[in-house]
Amino acid sequence: MRKAVWKINVVIISAFSLAVAVGPQTPAPSAGAQQPSAPAPPPRARGGFVTAVYDSVPPQIAADIKGPNAILIFSKTNGYREEPAIQASNNALVAIAKKRGWPSFVTENAAIMNAEQLARFKLVIWNNTSGDVLTEPQRAAFKTWMENGGSFVGTHGAGGDPHYEWPWYPETLIGAQFTSHSSQQPGTVKIEDTNSPITKGLPAVWQRTVRDEWYAFKDNPRSKPGFHILAVADESTYDPQRSSMGADHPMVWTHCVGKGPVFYSAIGHSAETYSEPNHLQLLENAIAWALGLSGPTGCPSK
């Protein structure tokens, strides 16, 4: 998703926030009932680099967005923004949450990264985020929340910048520094761990017909202690161009940051990938795993 690094201007905003809440209807909701999604926020850009914005005033969250399965869907971009993909992926994630009866809240307001509001969520999904999106206090709040048992799911662009001002994010949280990507093209993903609850329902050889970018990373996360590779790219099925990692090309993995489980997938550049049944299955499985609903995550509880 990142083709270059541009110098960008910074604008501070204090009152404007983009947020959509999805949660059980009130009063007296039926099990898993959800409020209809509010209209999508207006796009800041369509398929290009955007002006960086740092948020200072947190959004308001409906009182019923809470509980052990509450999900924060965070799609802020301070770098490259693929607007159709962000809209499609936010909609897909909200639909998954609604289907499973999980309260969810969608926002691009990074000021939500404070201790009080993060405490209302079990899981934060960084959905195709880009650039450095958090201020220093927001970074500290999010890092503390993660290390103390918060859960993280990162999709595609959330790990797709060639440089970050916050080294902890690519090196520790994502676990690998993005370097480049191929052109958009179909290809094959091979599932390494077919017994994981995250890969349940996926074919061992996932022949994708939807075009996607194929990310490459500076270091192979397989070499890091505690990292578990779930799926790899088969470079013989597409042209990696300058983005080759050879025979061992991880695309999907998990690990722990302190007590917090982490899932990252490099899949999902285009809007079309968020109507791909196998991709949607992967995301649903990953969210359930991160919420602790499909067995132990393997992260310490104490």
Write structural notes for this entry:
This protein is α/β, with parallel strands linked by helices and about 300 residues long. It has a single domain (about 10-290), classed as Rossmann fold, CATH 3.40.50.880. The protein contains five helices and 16 strands. It has helices spanning about 85-100, 115-120, 135-145, 170-175, 275-290; strands at about 10-15, 20, 50, 50-55, 70-75, 80, 105, 125, 150-155, 180, 185-190, 205-210, 215, 230-235, 250-255, 260-265. Strands 2-7-5-8-9-16-15-14-11-12 form a ten-stranded mixed beta sheet. It has a two-stranded parallel sheet with strand order 1-4. A two-stranded antiparallel sheet has the order 3-6. It is globular and about 50 Å long. The chain starts with 9 loop residues before the first strand and ends in a 12-residue tail after the last helix.
